[in-house]
Fold:
Amino acid sequence: MPQYSVLILHGPNLNLLGLREPEVYGSTTLEQVNTLLQEEGNRLQVKTSCLQSNHEGVLIDAIHQARDKHQGIIINAGAYTHTSVALRDAIAAIQIPTVEVHLSNIYRREEFRHHSYIAPIAIGQISGFGAMSYILGLQALVNYLRKANHDE
Ligand code: DQA
Structure:
């Protein structure tokens, strides 16, 4: 029986991973990222459920529904990171520990990417390690949940 269930949310344009600006985002596809997460989840004994959407409202609905289903969230909100107060408010409302991840190092890129609406309400942020950012995010989240629940 997996110990925790973790929701992994991918925001706009991440369905194009592998094709999209590979010099920035790498050649790993979204499907491959999700498989890597599932494998790491198996190793850590947690269940991973992945959802990608190009629509802000779909992501917000998924965050609301996470309340009864998941104990943690990993989110790469894509460009919504830099624009969406609504996504931030949704995460703040449900109070599920959330880790923000980015494939690219957003602080080495254009200035408009330097600000994240999500970072202040996330337990932490991992940025710049390609697909590995998600794996590091999952490890950090599970470690956080185990500590918070005195499971170790
Ligand atoms: C991104 C960084 C964002 O600035 C960008 O809009 C994305 C992807 C990343 O994973 O590096 O869509 O979140």
Q: What stands out?
A: The beta strands are 4-10, 46-52, 72-76, 98-102, 124-127.
